[in-house]
Structures are given as structure tokens and as C-alpha cells.
Amino acid sequence: MRRRSSASVGSEQMEKGTAKNQHSRLCFLATLSLFFWVLLLYFHFVVLGGNPLEESAKLQPIAVRTEFTPSHRIDDPSSEPRTSATPLTESHLETPRVVDPPIRETPRVVDPPKRETPRVVDPPKREAPKVVETKSKMENFPFMRALRTTENKTDPCGGRYIYVHDLPPRFNEDMLKECRKLSLWTNMCKFTSNAGLGPPLENVEGVFSNTGWYATNQFAVDVIFNNRMKQYDCLTRDSSIAAAIFVPFYAGFDIARYLWGYNTSVRDAASLDLVNWLTKRPEWNIMGGKDHFLVAGRITWDFRRLSDEEKDWGNKLLFLPAARNMSMLVVESSPWNANDFGIPYPTYFHPAKDADVFMWQDRMMNLERKWLFSFAGAPRPDNPKSIRGQIIDQCRNSKVGKLLECDFGESKCHSPSSIMQMFQSSLFCLQPQGDSYTRRSAFDSMLAGCIPVFFHPGSAYTQYTWHLPKNFTKYSVFIPEDDIRKSNVSIEERLRQIPPEQVKIMREEVINLIPRLIYADPRSKLETLKDAFDVAVQAVIDKVTRLRRNIIEGRTEYDNFIEENSWKYALLEEGEREVGGHKWDPFFSKPKGEADSGGSSAEAAKQSWKNEQRDQS
Fold it and tell me: What is the distance between the alpha carbons of residues 343 and 536, in angstroms, rounded to a whole number?
């Protein structure tokens, strides 16, 4: 074996040492190069790249996600320290993590302002045409001038003006000249005197106050209302500013003179003549008559004849197409129709000034009342549904009940003094249905401070919604007819269950209602109080104003309006627009053939006239 010389061994060692040194230098240079590129990338993306982000944040103040910040760091504490002798591997190359995050995040900073821009700009562009369009439409409504009067706060009559048609005298005054023809059995001439109040009542027994009391006929509202209108403080001759338009037609007196012995053509003549006259007037064209109203001092069934058969009752005024647009104020309205509204029967009291009312209220508040309940009326033996017979029996059999029987011939029921005296001495006054739903006695009793007891909601609660509180328990007691008819409930026991303190509160409520239930003397004017006339006129104005505003807004007052449910709508709470089932539905069921000219309501109207004939005999 050949041995190498020492010189050759030394030479190999030198070559190996040289190669090793060269390898170390290469590693050092590679490391230095890598460090340089990392510094360069850091400076580019972190130092220089940070300025655009900051400027973008200044321009658009929105939240910027910063999760990518750690990826810009090269001194990651989780990474292992590497010396110059450590080989360079792929795990040390962090370039993708440094470069990618900023590239992914850049759109998130820029995009949101682009999405928000349309939402700021678009709404004004969409709304502007609607405002202009609405204003243009409003200008086209012929009643806009009348509506604008409500905006004039310096005008006490703003939104309250009434225009009165100047009707030919054949529609009103000529009827009064022929007053003896207004009733077959009653001399209506004396009842149309004193502006419709009738002859003054003498206060012989001290039942009345010294002034303001008259023997007023219960069907005289036509004249009283018309004369009160002459004293209205906001009359105008300019129909374009009128909140409503009054038609001074004596509809009640017209039908009264032709009900017996006249054919349908005669009964309808004045109504057709009136409609023909009104529809030719320029005022009619403003709203097609929907801003017009008139008064008839009779029950609605006298004006709702469905057929032209001679045997049918009344005329067809309220079924004429034009009249359907008008509002007719009657002493009893139909629960199934929308163009008539109930107003109080006239009482015997017609004060000329506020002081007369205050004095009467004070007196009624302090009276001693010895009777728990009372009733003034006659039985209805021909009407199997009437509960009057049972009520009369209970009054007779009670030691705390008072009865004033109204039968044929002379009767204290025809004496205003006797009636008012009994009511003034009673805590509760029984008010069953009369010949129809309503009766004047209800208003006479409340005038006397007596709490009314009703047995049918149609006697008051659904009738006089303008004049009486919606919450009927505040001023009255309700005992359903069936409780008397089928169960023979004791009225005395039912009334005794009411605590004395509650009775006192209810009586005060009744006495506070007196001003709005009476018609003041048409020849004078109350200073601060609102009487039945004022309440009714304001209600008509409110009704017309709501209709006008609804027309402008293109909406209706109620959703899915059903005329046969008319009685329900006035009972709705604020904001309600649709009716449904009601606890009083059984009281107003409408079997086929009833509540029309050939049904029970027409028969009730006939019976009312027959009883008027009987009372005068």
C-alpha cells in the first residue's frame, strides 16, 4: 500500500479548509441578502404602504379591520432564531404572508363609500315629484279655500263658516202659514209660535224656573233648528269658504201634512222638488251634496218608503240618490243607514242666557228624591215584544217605585208639570222603547237630573252619539230587555245594587250633560255654553272636514265600510277603522222584510201617529 506524503496530506487539508471557508462565506452572503430583501419589503409595505391607508381613513371615517397587521412583522416571537450557519429553508420565507393581506384588504376600505353614495342621493330625487304633485292636486279641489280658513288663527270663525241656502218659501215659511194643515189632530199653529217653542208654561206649582219654559211639541225641531241657525255667529254668504251648507227645508212638517189620505206622488212631491232645486245650484257641485245637511223633527222611518205602493208608509226622501249624499238630522235615526244622524228631542226648557242653565243645574243637584225609580207611559198590548206591561206591573208592586199612567182621555202624562215633578223626585227613570226605539221622555228625565234606565241600546247609545258620552255607564243604567221579558228580573233589586256614592256621581254626570241636551231660545244666544244645536252643527262640520281631508289623501274614513253596520262605526275607539262582531248584534238583527217601509219600523211609525191621535182625543 502506497503511503501519502506529508506534503500531500497538508495540501488536502488546506483545500478542505478553503472549501469550508468558501461555504461559510456563501451562507453569510445569502443571509445578508435575505435580510436586505426583508428590510426592503418591510419598508415598502409597512412604512410606505401605511400612508395610503391612513389617508383613506381620513377621507372616509369607517371602521377598518386590522387583523392583517401582525403579518407585517418580521420579528415574530413564535419563530425560532436563526444564525448565519442555519440553512435557508422554505419555512423561513415569509414573503407571501407579508404581501397578500394588504392586497386582500384594500377593497374593503374603498368599497363602502361607493355603496353608501346612492342611499344619500336617491331619496330627495324620489320625493320631490310627489310633493309637487300633491300640491298640484290640492289646488284642484274646489273646497280648498274653505279648508284653509282653519289655518287662520286670527279668525274666530275659521273652519266654522256655514252657508245657508236661500230656499223658495214653499219649502219652509209657506208651511207655517198653513200650520193648521200640519196635523190632523193637533193645532200646530200654537206650537210653531215663539220661534217654534210654543206657548209659555206657567209655573203654578213651582216645578219650573220662572223663565225659559214652553209647551214645546216634540216634533217641532224643524222650526227651532232653523231659527237657531239664524243666530249662528259664523254665517257666510260666500259658499266657497263654508265648512258645511245648511238646507232649511221643513222635511218633518212636509210629510206630516200628507201622511193620511194622500197618494205617494203627493207625499214625494216636495222632496223631489227640493232635490231638483238643489242639484241645479253651483254649491251642489262642490261635493255633490256631501257637504249639505238638513233637519227633520220626526223619526227616520217617515222618510224611508221603499216602494211606490199606496199602502206603504211615508215618503222616500232619504232613499233619493241626491239625498243619500246629504246628512239628515232626525230625532231617531236608522241603525242600518249612513245618511241620518240622531239629535235630541226638544224638551220644555229653552234658556235665554247661561245663568238660567246654571241656576237650574244647581237646583237639580240639591233636590231630595224620594222615589228609587219611576215610569211615565202606557202599555202596548198590541206589541208582543213590548216590556212596558211588565215594567208597569213592577212599578205598581214596589213601595219605592212611582208610576204615571198615560192612557186614553185626560191624563197627567199630558201635563209637563206633572211629568217633570215626578222625574225631579226620582233617582232613576225607566225608559223602555216607545212606539219606535226612542222617546222624548228620556230627555225630559235627564233635564230633571234623573238617571235614565235603558233596555235597548237603540234608545240612546247608538242614536245620540254626538250628544251623549260613549261610555254609557257614566250617566245611565242598562238592563237588557230579555232580562225583563224572559227572566222577569227585579228592576228594584238591580238598582239597589248600585252604591249610593256611585248614584251620586252618575246624577252629577247627568246634570252636567243638560246644556248639550236642550235647545236654547232661538231669539237669544248663550254666552259660553253649547246647546244641542251647537253640538250638532259642530259634529256636521267635523264630519265634512274629515271627508274633505280624506278625499285629498285618497283614502276613506273606514276600511271595508258596510252600511248595514252603520250603528257600529260611531262606537269605534280612536284609530279603529273597521268593525266586527259586537255584543249588541242581537238587538239589531235585521230579518228580511223588516226595518223597511213594509216592516216593523214602518208599523212603529204608524203607531206613533195613532198614539198622537189618541193623546189629542
Answer: 7
Residue 245, strand partner residues: 163, 292
* 3-state SS assignment for residue 362: helix
* Residues across the chain: 617
**Over 80: is that where the pLDDT of 167 sits?**
yes
Q: Are 469 and 475 in contact (CB under 8 A)?
A: yes
Which of 505, 16, 535 is CA-nearest to residue 232? 535
d(CA 291, CA 286): 8
CA atoms within 13 A on the CB side of 145: 7
Contact 197, 521 (CB under 8 A): yes
Instruction: Give the pLDDT mean for 443-457.
Output: 98
Using the predicted structure, report yes or no on whether residue 487 has a pLDDT greater than 60.
yes
Backbone angles phi, psi at 584, to 5 degrees: -95, 5
Half-sphere exposure for 125 (CA within 13 Å, toward CB): 5
Band of residue 600 on the pLDDT scale cut at 50, 70, 90: low
Residue 339 has pLDDT above 50, yes or no: yes
Can you list the alpha helix ranges (DSSP code H) found in 63-156? 95-140, 144-148
Q: Tell whether the model's pLDDT for residue 269 goes beyond 70.
A: yes
Look up residue 434 and give its three cell numbers: 216607545
Adjacency order of strands within the sheet including 292-299: 235-236, 162-164, 244-246, 292-299, 327-332, 340-342
DSSP conformation class of 462: T
pLDDT at 574: 86
Q: What are the CA-CA distances from residue 132 to residues 136, 143, 593 (Å)? A: 6, 19, 52
Cell numbers found for residue 612: 198622537
- Between 185 and 337, the more confident residue is 337
Handedness of CA 74, 79, 84, 87 (dihedral sign): negative
pLDDT above 90: residue 18: no
Query: What's the pLDDT at 407?
Result: 72
| φ, ψ at 375 (rounded to 5°) | -150, 135
C-alpha distances (whole Å) from 534 to each of 167, 458, 526, 560 are: 22, 23, 10, 31
What is the DSSP annotation of 561-598? --GGGHHHHTTPPTT-------TTGGGG---TT-SSTT
Of the candidates 415, 414, 448, 417, the residue with the CA atom closest to the CA atom of residue 431: 448
Residue 165's alpha-carbon distances to 1, 92, 467, 541, in angstroms, are 151, 103, 26, 16
Q: What is the CA radius of gyration of the chain?
A: 45
CA distances from 211 to 74, 343, 355, 514, 529 (A): 109, 24, 11, 16, 18
For residues 607 and 486, give the distance between their C-alpha atoms in angstroms, rounded to a whole number. 25
pLDDT digits (tens, 9 = 90+) for 123-136: 444 444 444 444 55
Angle between helices 532-553 and 500-517 (to 10 degrees): 80
What's the burial of 451, exposed, middle or buried (CB within 10 Å: 0-12/13-18/19+)?
Answer: buried
Residues 6+ apart with CB under 8 A from 536: 225, 329, 341, 343, 466, 467
